Amino acid sequence: MTETRIEAWLDEDRAFAPSTEFSAQANAQPSIYEEAAKDPVAWWRQQANRLAWDVAPTTALEWDLPNATWFADGTLNASVSCVDVHVREGRGARVAFHWVADAEGESRTITYHDLHREVCRTANALLELGVKKGDRVAVYMPMIPEAIFAMLAIVRLGAIHSVVFGGFSAEALSSRILDSDCRFVVTADGAFRRGVASPLKPAVDEALKSCPDVTAVLVVQRTRGEVQWTPGRDYWWHDIVQRQSDVHQPESFPAETPLFIMYTSGTTAKPKGIFHTTAGYLTQAATTYHYVFDVKPESDVCWTAADIGWITGHSYIVYGPLVNGVTQIMYEGLPDSGGRDRWWKIISQYGATILYTAPTTIRTLMKWGHQIPEAFDLSSLRLLGTVGEPINPEAWMWYRQNIGGDRCPIVDTWWQTETGAILCSPLPGITATKPGAAMRALPGISVAVVDDAGHEVEHGQGGYLVVTAPWPSMTRGIWGDPARFFDTYWSRFPGKYFAGDGAKLDSDGDLWLLGRVDDVMNISGHRLSTTEVEHALVGHRAVAEAAVVGASDETTGQAIVAFVTLKLSAEDMNKDQAALVEELRSHVASVISPIAKPRQIILTPDLPKTRSGKIMRRLLRDVAENRSLGDVTTLTDPTVVNMIAGLMDTRASSDD
Ligand code: WTA
């Protein structure tokens, strides 16, 4: 998202005061900010009491930049805090998940008691397959309950999950498996999307051709499609999990035991394995879920409409909600599986009280028209959340008026894979909300907006968002690459965490996020690096060079625009250019994922470069967004960029 665009969004004067009706019953009281500010580390130590400790910690933060530990001398088992404790304390009959299938009419109800049984059985099955403490296990799954059973069973054994989004290609999967040396994979035969079965297992088979150290693949049967089978390596879930004992005695692990790895795009072609450890992460996931979503476990029906393949699914479908012991909706399908009214059907049928989703989805629902949600009773909703990218005020207002009945507070939550949990957000019932603003740091968190020199900006000014003190759920690093961890986050502004986001403080001092300031793009809330897509493009035989930029897009926030020069072989020479562009778009989808498919590919005889040979991405972004071109004097050949701008005008774009 470009700064110019957001500047136009800033609408500082429109604010919604917290409703008194909400404030009266809110989990957080206004004094919480002061209490936490007095001694943030002690405050977080208090919050850690939300977990079921075997040995309570006597320490909180140990900080040796960039390395933090939290609560290090305590011991616990993450799955016990999520599951066993609720059963032990008499809440076993409460529904943990109302699972709703892609197909209408198919659903499952999973109580905490059921969850406990399934997690124990899955843990026993994984033990039988040889999973031990510290092993890495890849999870490549659709949105089915078994994905959650697997994640919790893995951490129950002290092993580490690396969930790879089911939409990623075989190549993306194998590079992630290799990077963290996963020895096991949990997957399914396929997934349903709008009633159509799409296979997953073939991608695993393909990926594992280059991962010889994977010894076992556990496969859930979901679509009943044909699958290839490697005896001795592949095991059906129903064969091996179902026959296990319902009892599994959990071991207690030190607080800093690694919990999971989640790959995310950085500014290079190689995704980073961001890893999180147990107690700090769980404490902040649970605390933020409690306060930001104001959850009332006895009465709420919470729906985080995200995929477990991303950090939002980890923190706000699995860990945060389960530590709080809430009832959730878990939905397998797309917003229009079975029709464009599917979400509203689900909300009214289950009486959802909290909905958390991404601005892209809100903009899509908005395009479909307010008449669709209007036909449903959405009065059960009491709080709405948004995450993943800046939300434009139009979408925010639409969400508030058409979904929230002009009564539900909206929490615009800023955070990242690396931060593990929410850092900036309004607190419902306490903080005013403004359409498009994340407002302020949560209690116990310190952020600032700084200029190029690292000095805090005045109200009314923009700069870079930094975090100025360590927080419990901060990533403990990039798997296998401590130097990259320091360089990426801790070297730009000494002593501060550099998030990579632009931000602005308005005249009231409230915080607005302006989008990435690096080469990371945000496509429908999914992070992708420009270099990653360029890398995929130059991997195609016809491509000589590629430059990729993220251009603003009405629906997806940003969309990928690629500028490509060709080295045509005899085979490609005769191809129609449009056919070649289509081939390149599909090529990127198959190398990375359909989410990385460029909206537009411009074939050009040359790319604009500085005299030192660097591609001038800034100019290409201007071209892609139809802006007037800035200073081109540093270019070797200023005519190139005008020529490309000319090509943009004449080529039709395709946008599926
Ligand atoms: C962006 C997703 C504006 C931001 C949880 C960040 C946001 C990146 C917001 C992290 C928000 C996330 N307003 N921008 N409320 N939330 N972002 O790692 O650019 O997939 O750096 O984590 O998304 O994306 P990630």
Provide a concise account of the structure shown.
With 656 residues, the protein is an alpha/beta fold. The chain is 32% helix and 23% strand. Strand 10 and strand 11 (196-199) form a beta hairpin.
Characterization of the model:
- By secondary structure, the chain is α/β, with parallel strands linked by helices.
- It has a domain at 520-655: ANL, C-terminal domain (GMP Synthetase, Chain A, domain 3, 2-Layer Sandwich).
- It has 22 helices and 31 strands.
- Strands 13-12-9-7-8-15-16-24 form an eight-stranded mixed sheet, with helices on both faces. A seven-stranded mixed sheet has the order 6-5-18-17-19-20-21, sandwiched between helices.
- α5 packs across α7 (145-156) and α8 (170-179) crosses α9.
- The longest helix is centred in the N-terminal third of the chain and has 17 residues, at 112-128.
- The protein is globular and about 75 Å long.
- The model is unreliable at 651-656 (pLDDT under 50).
- The structure holds 5'-O-[(S)-ethoxy(hydroxy)phosphoryl]adenosine.
- Residues 264, 310-312, 387-390, 412-417, 438, 499-501, 513, 516, 522, 527 line the site of 5'-O-[(S)-ethoxy(hydroxy)phosphoryl]adenosine.
